[in-house]
Amino acid sequence: MTDCPECGFTYDPTAASGAAQAIRDGIAEVAELLLRPDEDPRPRRRDTLWSPLEYACHLRDMLLVQRERVLAARRTDRPDCTPMGRDERVDHDGYADQDPADVARQTTDAALMFTNVLERLDPSAWDRVVVYHYPTPGTERSLRWVAVHTVHEVRHHLLDIRRQIRPAQHEQ
Length: 172
Known about the structure:
- The protein is mainly alpha-helical.
- Helices cover 51% and strands 5% of the residues.
- It contains five helices and two strands, in the order ααααββα.
- The chain has a two-stranded antiparallel ribbon with strand order 1-2.
- A hairpin with a 6-residue loop joins β1 and β2.
- α1 runs antiparallel to α4 and α2 runs parallel beside α4.
- The longest helix has 24 residues.
- It is globular, with a radius of gyration of 16 Å.
- The protein starts with 18 loop residues before the first helix and ends in a 10-residue tail after the last helix.
- The mean pLDDT is 94.
């Protein structure tokens, strides 16, 4: 098991069976934060960080990419998970110019699509392998790891979003 030094997440492959619900829960909070009427998620708070909206767009696209990776692993042996170009997508897809309500809906839909695929995995399918390029290029990873890594992505970027959005008045 490995821990993320920034958010404290622990990679535990035995937690893969709970990944779908953890992903849906995290994305529900992301969508809620994007839709807050007292906070604009579009502007960057610091030049070195994506805005809350940009993080949400990344999560949406990452969930769709992860879904395709899992489906590919169901069809073929050891498919290569080509890097998604996360940094390039921010500009290429105009993340900062997208409508927060649309992104909230799309991210929720992407989470439902991905978790549907996870929930359809039988016990042997969880052990299927992909060739993943994070954190080390060309590493073989089980679909259990892919599911747990996706939970980490959601939780880590939810933390990135929370750090930039003030608590609602009733939460203070």
